[in-house]
Design goal:
Layout (H helix, E strand, L loop, with lengths): L3 E5 L11 H5 L4 E10 L4 H18 L3 E12 L7 E7 L8 H7 L2 H7 L2 E11 L9
Antiparallel strand pairs: 1-3, 2-4, 2-5, 3-4
Helix pairs in contact: 2-3, 2-4
């Protein structure tokens, strides 16, 4: 079986990320896992775009809860992308919002995404409360 381990290790996002206690109280929400790896020659531009444009656009979208970024620490899969972003949203209505679409349709994003060599994306609907797992 495939194993990937990601750890915090990317520059601070300039926003509060969820602490374990906050995460346990979240309840129902949407989790979007975006895994990307830019070409080595474009890595700095990728991180600048993410920090200066992409994340600020996402923060404006309705029902945004949090965003966190991680770096690949270990993988049994040679095709595992280097970067993992985890975005949490209150509902899937965000995907139809003007603000979300604006985050996905900029010239800078188009330029950066043309240099992505590995990618993956998962959207999960979490139902329940993580705090109930501890009981």
């Amino acid at each position: 079986p495939e194993l990937r381990v990601y750890k915090h290790g990317v520059e601070p996002l300039g926003i509060d990320t969820l602490q374990a206690e906050q995460t346990r109280r979240l309840g129902d929400h949407i989790m979007v896992f975006v895994l990307l790896e830019p070409h080595r020659s474009n890595e700095e531009a990728f991180n600048q775009w993410y920090q200066k444009e992409h994340l600020p656009y996402l923060l404006r979208a309705p029902t945004w809860i949090s965003s966190e970024r991680f770096l690949l620490h270990f993988s049994t899969d040679s095709e595992a992308p280097k970067y993992l972003a985890l975005h949490r949203w209150g509902s899937n209505e965000v995907f139809d919002s003007e603000e979300y679409m604006a985050a996905l349709n900029t010239e800078w994003r188009t330029s950066v995404m043309a240099q992505i060599v590995k990618r993956d994306r998962f959207v999960l609907n979490y139902e329940g409360n993580l705090g109930s797992l501890a009981k």
